[in-house]
């Protein structure tokens, strides 16, 4: 794994019509952000589930990336200050995002497939830019109403697009009592990815609904829970219960905290009982399952290979994005997927340096918003969402997918901007 090799990728040309549409979208995002920074955040949230990708070198041009560029230009046109990014409240998170990007780039040195490192490096830089832009935008325009309603709208669209697949064609399925049961995904890449999306939006919606008595947000949260169950994602079901529990634990109202905690416990017990009744409990706990014929290996196999890659390259790993491409050389012929664990993936592809940067960033987010921040819906929600996402990623690698990574970093940025605004600093 010492030589540099470029992988073969099917490139879709960016035709004139698509280029014109992207240009129009960038102009719209620019104009909206120039008018109000909050409008730019709304566009970042609502556009996140949609990609419409076109390849450009090692990466893709997508709707969320074009919106991000337009929002950045709109903030520049508003003569926005970078002062919020220098605040001590957010230095750990900003430092974590920078460290992840730098280490990801550095993994080009031991990598075999340099274009895969390029793709992952650009993704890490996208997440860094998303966090910085969201922080600055909310610090300049700290009106929470537009972003909360944008979250409710985006969640409703995603869940509706997934539930429709119960009656049309789903991207995956499973055998249940001799019948094929669909596993829905909607606009996300797969059922586990949809569950990861709900790991983020669910605790935010619950925290907002509980804090403000918002029936709309509690209703959308209920829709998200139904959708999550229909994904049949083991990690997702467990993680959303964890997220709801930590929302209940942090809320300052005992009258709300007690019913939420009891409800979470009942839901957890009901899920466990249903798994036992449907003879799915062993599958839930198993790491040996495999989606036959889809190019996916079992977790037992993938985790073993990931540990082997890390032992061979303990400091910088085998190179970002190289895991799936190196699997045939590790004896998993016909398998092309990630390690099904954020933590093992970072160890395998980025060694101890990337693993440390990733765990530090997760810890910084939890400490900043869940432990130290005031007991307000925004901080409780993103703190609990981070805990849920970190829990789910024991079994899946979710931030590999920009629709999940961008949504998480947008809301980390919004919460950071809120902290900065509380300190009296405006962008």
Walkthrough of the structure:
The protein has 427 residues and is mainly α. It has one domain. The strands form 2 sheets. Strands 1-2 form a two-stranded antiparallel sheet. Helix 2 runs antiparallel to helix 5, helix 6 crosses helix 7 and helix 7 packs antiparallel against helix 15. The longest helix is centred in the C-terminal third of the chain and has 31 residues. The chain is globular and about 55 Å long.
Quick overview:
Helices cover 66% and strands 4% of the residues. By secondary structure, it is mainly alpha-helical. α9 (234-250) packs antiparallel against α15.
List keywords for this structure.
427 residues, mainly alpha, 4 strands, two-stranded antiparallel ribbon, 16 helices, disordered N terminus
Content of β-strand: under 5%
- Summed up, the domain count is 1
**Average pLDDT, to the nearest integer?**
89
Number of E-state strands: 4
Shape descriptor reads globular
Order of helices and strands: HHEEHHHHEEHHHHHHHHHH
| Main structural class | mainly alpha
Describe the strand arrangement of the main beta sheet, using strand numbers.
1-2
Distance between the amino and carboxyl termini: 46 Å
Radius of gyration (Å): 21 Å
- Contiguous low-pLDDT stretches (5 residues minimum) are 1-11, 287-294
Q: State the helix count.
A: 16
Helix content: 55-70%
Largest sheet: 2 strands, antiparallel
């Amino acid at each position: 794994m010492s030589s540099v090799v470029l992988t073969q990728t099917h490139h879709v040309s960016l035709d004139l019509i698509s280029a014109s549409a992207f240009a129009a979208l960038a102009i719209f995002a620019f104009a909206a952000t120039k008018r109000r920074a909050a409008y730019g955040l709304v566009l970042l949230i609502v556009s996140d589930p949609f990609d419409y990708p076109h390849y450009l070198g090692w990466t893709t041009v997508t709707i969320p990336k074009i919106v991000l560029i337009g929002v950045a230009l709109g903030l520049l046109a508003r003569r926005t200050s970078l002062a919020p990014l220098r605040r001590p409240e957010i230095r750990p998170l900003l430092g974590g995002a920078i460290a992840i990007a730098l280490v990801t780039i550095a993994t080009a040195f031991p990598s075999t497939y340099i274009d895969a490192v390029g793709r992952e490096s650009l993704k890490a830089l996208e997440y860094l830019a998303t966090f910085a832009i969201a922080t600055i935008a909310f610090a300049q325009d700290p009106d929470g109403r537009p972003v909360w309603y944008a979250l409710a709208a985006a969640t409703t669209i995603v869940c509706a697009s997934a539930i429709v697949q119960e009656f049309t064609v789903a991207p995956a399925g499973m055998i249940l009592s001799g019948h094929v049961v669909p596993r829905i995904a909607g606009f996300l890449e797969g059922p586990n990815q949809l569950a990861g999306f709900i790991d983020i939006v669910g605790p935010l919606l619950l925290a907002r609904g509980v804090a403000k008595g918002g029936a709309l947000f509690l209703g959308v949260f209920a829709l998200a829970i139904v959708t999550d169950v229909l994904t049949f994602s083991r990690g997702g079901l467990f993680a959303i219960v964890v997220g709801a529990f930590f929302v209940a634990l942090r809320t300052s109202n005992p009258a709300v905290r007690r019913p939420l905690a009891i409800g979470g416990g009942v839901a957890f017990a009901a899920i466990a009982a249903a798994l036992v009744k449907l003879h799915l409990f062993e599958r839930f706990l198993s790491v040996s399952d495999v989606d036959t014929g889809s190019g996916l290996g079992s977790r037992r196999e993938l985790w073993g290979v990931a540990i082997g890659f890390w032992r061979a390259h303990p400091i910088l790993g085998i190179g970002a994005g190289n895991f799936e491409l190196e699997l045939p050389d590790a004896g998993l012929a016909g398998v092309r997927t990630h390690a099904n664990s954020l933590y093992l993936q970072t160890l395998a592809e980025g060694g101890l340096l990337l693993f440390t940067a990733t765990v530090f960033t997760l810890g910084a987010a939890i400490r900043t918003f869940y432990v130290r921040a005031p007991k307000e819906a925004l901080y409780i929600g993103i703190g609990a969402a981070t805990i849920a996402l970190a829990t789910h990623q024991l079994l899946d690698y979710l931030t590999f997918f920009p629709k999940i990574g961008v949504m998480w970093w947008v809301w980390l940025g919004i919460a950071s901007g809120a902290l900065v605004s509380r300190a009296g600093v405006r962008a």
